[in-house]
Amino acid sequence: MSSRPRGRPRKLRRDELNQDELNPDLLNPDLLNPDLLNPDLLNKEAKALLREILALEALSKCSFIRGLANHISKIIICMSQGLTSGTLSYEDTAPVDRVVRIIRHGEKKMRRTIQRRSARQESRWRAEKALMEREIKKLGARVEGTVKRCREVLMLMRVRRESEKRMQSGEESDGSEN
User: Fold this and answer.
1) Which residues does the annotated region (Disordered) include (predicted)?
2) Residue 67 and residue 79: Cα distance in Å, rounded?
3) Cβ proximity of 53 and 61 under 8 Å
4) pTM above 0.70, yes or no
5) Into how many domains does the chain fold?
6) Which residue of 63, 65, 71, 163 lies most exposed, with the fewest beta carbons within 10 A?
């Protein structure tokens, strides 16, 4: 079994990527056709893709997203290779850099949100714990009072029973003298 949490995809190492799997057409200038980057078209495609993803079953979603992540990793590696070889410039990769920054910013924001939420939850738990401790102390005091009262009642019942026995034995002795 692996040590990573279940459901979390394994990080992809560079040596695991076959160079022939990296599509050289990704760097093809024809793919950067402005007509293909029409925001309205992208929004329609993104909405359709989102509907398709939501319609998938859980395992299919997981494998689809894992595959998508692998493709994104491969694209970023190709872009990095293009930058180092000089076939791409930083201006060419600026949109992807913006996306990466947005993702990082979102991760930081999400992490802060989760930290604030967990801090609030921890504070609530501490308050509930203190309340339960106070309630337990109150209940303990009530139980001790009840036990004390039960002992007093038992003592009174014994005394009463003994006095009744004495009275009965006294009446019997009085009755035998007549």
Assistant:
1) 1-21
2) 18
3) yes
4) no
5) 1
6) 163
